[in-house]
Write a structure and sequence with these properties.
The protein is mainly α and about 140 residues long. Among the domains are: about 40 residues; about 50 residues, no CATH class. It is about 30% helix and about 5% strand. The chain is built from five helices and three strands. Strands 1-3-2 form a three-stranded antiparallel sheet, with no helix packed on it. It is elongated and about 85 Å long.
Length: about 140
């Protein structure tokens, strides 16, 4: 089998073609990767690919961009209703953009709901609970 592999490789067949030919000759389903692995273990040089002419690039016409909504298109805007400031926890369905996402309570799952600190998912109180006093940590670092 190795001799036949060497002959087929020398003739320039691809690993897929060698696998198919050896599979028919030896009545065993060889795979392309099995042939590549065997050639690698035998330290055979890789197959030289034939030089092909580069294919011409396809030129496509540009599509026109649509401007504005146009007729028949509906644009929906999400409007967040202002909520009165309370210290009551809120459910996930009431949670809005800019609300503190600190979970409070086990069941039903409720969240703090106060205004978020800039750059965080939590209000200033819960930010300190989760991350500690960041200013003090920055002062201690060299």
């Amino acid at each position: 089998m190795i001799e036949r592999l060497l002959v087929l490789q020398a003739r320039g067949f691809t690993a897929r073609e060698i696998a198919q030919k050896l599979g028919r000759e030896f009545d065993f389903p060889f795979t392309r990767n099995a042939i590549i692995g065997k050639m690698h273990r035998l330290c055979l040089p890789p197959r030289v690919k034939p030089i092909t002419q580069p294919k011409p690039k396809k030129v496509y016409a540009r599509k026109r961009k649509r401007k504005g909504a146009g007729p028949g298109r509906i644009i929906m805007k999400v409007v967040q209703q202002p909520r009165a400031e309370t210290n009551e926890p809120i459910t996930i369905y009431q949670l809005g953009f800019g609300d503190c996402r600190y979970p409070s309570g086990n069941f039903p799952f409720v969240f703090c709901g106060k205004e978020q600190q800039e750059g965080s998912s939590y209000c200033p109180e819960h930010f300190v609970v989760c991350h500690g006093n960041v200013q003090r940590q920055l002062e201690v670092r060299p």
